[in-house]
Amino acid sequence: MDKAFEDYLKQFDLNNFHIKRKHIHTYRVADNCLKIARALHLSEDDTELAYQIGILHDIGRFHQLEETGSYDDATLDHADYGAKLLFEDGLIASFPVKKENYKVVEMAVKYHNKFAVESNLEERTEFFCKLIRDADKIDILELSCEGIIKFYMDGPIKPNILAQVQSHSQVRINGPRTNTDNVFIQIGFFYDIYFKPSVDILFERKIIDRLKDKVNDKIVCQELDRVQRYLKERFTC
After folding, report:
1. What pTM did the predictor assign?
2. Are residues 140 and 81 in the same domain?
3. What is the maximal distance between C-alpha atoms in the chain?
4. Over the stretch 135-161, which tens digit does the pLDDT of each residue have?
5. Number of domains the chain is built from
6. Residue 34: domain span
């Protein structure tokens, strides 16, 4: 799987910071998929499938940057585009994915970045959609801890956004976003985690504490404390 992915990437400039960043992110997410799958005691075949989905989840990012010059999903949704590349344009044939898993992979790629997973998916498909969403969110949050993704306040928090987070939900925003908005979008990610092994990874890597250290803001720290209590209660960590 890794060789097929590296062969695909040969058409892009891996010295480009943004391409390199997504290259690294891909393997980190795939590794998170493996950790979650193994902790859930999935079969060998399903563990391999989880890894494959991790490798393919952001396949549309590379062309998105090349075509639009940005990672703005409002201009070109990278997940929809990735699913198109793989299953309409036939790129999936370049990867060692079993044909019986094509629909699962297609939906997992398509829905990994959406606000929510479609409600009428087949149970197995829904499961892998949730797994990749957890694995991806974990790395996005960790990249924020590392300063690769911006995590700082540039103004006051909007009351409607704070209310969404305080209701234990993800944050939905229409229109332009401030850096403060993005901080609370990421806090909202914690409320969309599905599996206890994912929460275990978050705590093992001290992601909540590290994010608190990044932002010296009373409200942010209060909400991250609230997240920590919520996750411990929900998953009895």
Report:
1. 0.95
2. yes
3. 51
4. 999 999 999 999 988 898 999 999 999
5. 2
6. 1-149
